[in-house]
Model the fold of this input.
Amino acid sequence: MKIELPTLEQISAGLIQTSQRQGRLYPYSQNLQLGYDKVVLVFLLADNSQSAPTSVPEFYQDWCEKPFEEWGVEVDQEIDGSDTLLFLGEPTELTIELAEAFGGSTLSQEQSRIATILLQRCQAHPQGTQIYTKFRRFIVEHPVLSNQELVEAKGNFGLGIGLSDLLEECYEIAPLCYQLEGNFYACPYCHALAAVDREQAIANPNCNRCPPGRRLKKKVKLSNDSLKLKRGIERFWFYPGRSEIRLYEKLTELGLQVELYPDRDHYDLRVTFPDSKVWALDLKDYYNPYLLLKRLGDEPLPKEPPWDEAYIVIPNERKKERPAYLKELKSRWRTQDVRPVFDDAIFALAKKKLEEISVQQTTQAPDGAGEGSKSSSKITSRTKKRKREHERN
Done:
């Protein structure tokens, strides 16, 4: 007997519900209670009842914080034995993904509600596409704000746009448990609020730049009236958004025409090349490749706006923490017209395609130069111009 994936999904849904109540266990979440019962049943069927968790509180406070390999029972093979469901009382990335696979969580419902309102308001505005992109990008670039910064931002999104109230809904007062000696600190890598454990600032579990729990040697002091993104917005907009913005800027520097969140986020990036070919890129920042596949389903990327080639792009950080990530993903990949790649690979592919276009245009020119050389020169000039603009900004 082993603990199957559906049981872990149900437990995770219960853990998310509990975390939204600031860890208050009683009354027990039904999903957490039923998931716990199923874990105990596995031990009973294995004739090992003495090793089973004795209560829901023990299961929540002890078992969910320790790696599966220490549970003393076999767990579904798609889950790594070193993974945990909680980290310092907070649901891990794996837990959030398992809860999503179970049928959604309060975290995804939170961001879905705000996303729906944002789309509705932007659709009614003549510059809705630009406003949508501006709003999403602001969230990605501001995981933490002071009260004054929020007031200023609400002013920018209020006049003529009517999104000031929605922006405020994305943030919450930073909990005092994040304070270290009376101060809040941000991670120097992702700029989100740093966690605190044993009187030291530690790496945020979702940062990807260093292992969860590692002490931050560098940290950025924040205002004492700091506000942080709500967990659902942070998980589904901020963390994936960092990779989206990073790739957007890199492709723009190549001189490519890149649209961020085309048609109000049908997918993440729409890249148009000088030969008019279009690539659709959708970044998916998932901890577990098997759960990503489950999330994508049979149609991993919308057909509109139209594209010639399409890619599901995985942030490089996933490769660092799980070297076989892409191999595991491809082992079950079934969609022929959409390919999974890491973001450094998509950048290399785009650069190679630009070079091929330049060579092709040069070759096709009557004198081996002419229009091809002019086109190549235009691409180079456009690239340099965009790079200078980016540096100024």
The mean pLDDT is 85. The first strand starts at residue 2 and ends at 3.
